[in-house]
Amino acid sequence: MNCVKLVLFFMLYPFLCQLAFSSSLPHFCPKHQAHALLQFKQMFTLNPNASGDYCFNMTRTSRLYLSYPRTLSGNKSTDCCSWNGVYCDEMTGQVIELDLFCSRLQGKFHSNSSLFQLSSLKWLDLSNNNFSGLIISPKFGELSSLTHLDLSHSCFIGVIPAEISHLSKLQALRIWIYDPYGLRTVT
């Protein structure tokens, strides 16, 4: 009888493991990450007069940019993984990608932004927005999981912070700084 139970266990074990770790089960983003995204959203206004003709029909990783602008369209009652521009890990629910390309965001990007609480971010695209001529925060260097960072055409000025060089997993970096003196790095 014990032998039958053992055989049955080994036959069912792969099925049980698949069921337990199935990505088809919903994994909601953690509340602290949803809260951080909502705080980040409140820092900016949408500029309805911003021209976005160049934003249409651009592709990145086979996504078509037709859902312009992305506005972090969620609220406290919805899972942030379902918000436009937010992508989550299917297993953990952690926010791993924030794509706000061409979202007509306008305002000041503060160095204490709640964005820096999203420690699992691998992809961050804030390009083609208007962050009011501020310098790039050194805190971007604390997002240690980043593989892609795009801050181009977003009205940043000044030097590229040395802390960005600490992003050891970074594979792609796009920075276009609006500065009459050109790009500079701090040494």
List the helices and strands and how they pair.
Elements: H1 2-20, H2 31-42, E1 45-46, E2 59-60, E3 63-64, E4 86-88, E5 95-99, E6 105-106, E7 123-125, E8 148-150, E9 159-160, E10 172-174, E11 184-185
Parallel strand pairs: 5-7, 7-8, 8-10, 9-11
Antiparallel strand pairs: 1-6, 2-3, 4-5
**Would you identify the regions where 5 or more consecutive residues have pLDDT less than 50?**
61-67
CATH topology: Leucine-rich repeat, LRR (right-handed beta-alpha superhelix)
User: Cα distance, first to last residue?
Assistant: 73 Å
How would you describe the shape? elongated
Helix vs. strand class = alpha/beta
In angstroms, what is the radius of gyration?
Answer: 21 Å
Instruction: Please report the number of helical segments.
Output: 2
Q: Report the count of strand segments.
A: 11
Number of individual domains: 1
In CATH terms, what is the architecture?
Alpha-Beta Horseshoe
Query: How confident is the prediction overall: mean pLDDT?
Result: 79
